[in-house]
Amino acid sequence: MTYALMVQGAPYSQQASHSALRFAEALPAQGHRVATVFFYHDGIYNAASMMTPPRDEPHLLERWRALHQTQQCELLVCVASAVRRGLLDEGEARRHGHSHPTLEAPFELTGLGQLMQAALEHDRLITFAP
Amino acid sequence: MESKSILVVVRHPPHGSSWVREGLETALVGAALGQPPNLLFSGDGILALLAHQQRGALGQKGSAAMLEGLSLYDIEPLWYDRHSLEARGLDASQLIPGCQQASTADMIARHDVVMSF
Amino acid sequence: MNTLHLVNRSPFATRILDELAAAVCEGDHVLLIEDGVYAACGTALSDFPKGIKLWALEEDCVSRGIVPSEFPKRVDMAGFVDLTARAHRCVSWF
User: Fold this and answer.
1) What share of chain C is helix, strand, coil (3-state, %, to 5)?
2) How many CB pairs under 8 A join A and C?
3) Range of the structural domain that residue A106 is part of
4) Neighbours of chain A (3+ CB pairs under 8 A)
5) Tell me, which fold does domain C3-93 have in CATH?
6) Residue A117 belongs to a domain with what CATH number?
7) How far from A41 is each of C6, C37, C93, CA to CA, in Å?
């Protein structure tokens, strides 16, 4: 089966990101795959490209990147939630007069239409909430 | 697009957080894609349906105004959980127009995908 | 066509379990994750409707020192995945 995950919890504040990652990483062993991760609400902070946790703590950004590599999943970030909260890719940063982007590939800024599309296309939608 | 039925459930009250706005925006986008979801207010979510609300501290463009516009996008009626209303000592006359009672259990069982806010 | 309900909040902090109790259908499954596993303590689940299968995520019980008991039944992460695959839909309560 293909899965879509909606992650609504902020990294390092709530367990949601950890739970979502642990769940997604367990999918292939059961014959499934995560196809889309959609970050919404405070979940968008999972894409903060300058995330710098202490060395002895899990690096959530690296874990998401690894998930993208191993399962070829899209990492979609709600653009309306992200721009409001200061997460901008290169294009948005330029458009709003900021010198540096705060979000980079493989994360992509997208609209809620992509969340709907993922919910309709994939076999399961699982929400990881704060 | 595949024809799966989608239910958007709002379970948080308005004003204190952005859940209501985010749930409504999700429902609106579904409608814009030609798949208007059913929208259910349950638990504290029914408090979003109370009449006579004002803009809130979050500067949300008044979720009340958003709610009134939903019927233009074929998102109607606004379903509410009857038990949640009664548990809060409210009755249907205190809600904005266009609301209709439902059972959360039935609504969940009738949809393929449930999105919670 | 059953539903898997995911609960991640302590029942001692919210009334989510009461709300959920009114929203389940016979044959549904409830999986307690994160702080939801505290529902395994005391009598939090004693009034929960019968005919609903209750599970708790093993690793969240272990990390919180929730002592193993028979009820609710434990599942590991593979079991979590399996529950989602078998259910027709998943609903998160938070």
Assistant:
1) 30, 25, 45
2) 45
3) 2-128
4) B, C
5) Hypothetical Protein Ychn; Chain: A, (3.40.1260)
6) 3.40.1260.10
7) 19, 24, 16
Point out the residues of A that are catalytic: 78
- What's the rounded mean pLDDT across residues B2-20? 92
Q: What is the total count of domains within chain A?
A: 1
pLDDT value of position B54: 84
Question: Are A112 and B29 an interchain contact pair (Cβ–Cβ within 8 Å)?
Answer: yes
Residue of B nearest to A128 (CA): B116
Contact assignment for A23 to C94 by CB distance below 8 Å = no
Is pLDDT at A68 greater than 90 in this prediction?
yes
Asked if A26 and C77 come within 8 Å (Cβ–Cβ), the reply is: yes
Q: CA A12, CA A6: separation in Å to the nearest integer?
A: 17
Q: Nearest Cα to C51, choosing from C90, C82, C24, C88?
A: C24
Cβ distance C85 to A29 less than 8 Å, yes or no, reads no
Quote the mean pLDDT of chain A.
98
Q: Give the distance from residue B37's alpha carbon to the nearest chain A alpha carbon, in angstroms.
A: 10
Q: How many whole angstroms separate alpha carbon A80 and alpha carbon A102? A: 15
pLDDT at B55: 81
Query: Contact, C55 vs C79, CB < 8 A?
Result: yes
Spatial separation of the C-alpha atoms in residues A49 and A101, rounded to whole Å:
8
3-state secondary structure of C14: coil
> Considering the domain boundaries, does residue B106 fall inside one?
yes
Flag whether pLDDT at B2 surpasses 60. no
Considering only CB atoms, which chain C residues are within 8 Å of B111? 89
CATH number of the domain bearing residue B102? 3.40.1260.10
Q: What is the span of the domain harbouring residue B47?
A: 6-116
Contact C80 A124 (CB under 8 A): no
Q: Is C71 on the interface with B (CB under 8 A)?
A: no
Residue of A nearest to B114 (CA): A125
pLDDT at residue B39 greater than cutoff 60: yes
Tell me the chain B residues in contact with residue A127 when contact means C-beta distances shorter than 8 Å: 115-116
Residue C14, pLDDT > 70, answer: yes
pTM of the predicted protein model: 0.96
Is there a domain that residue B109 lies in?
yes
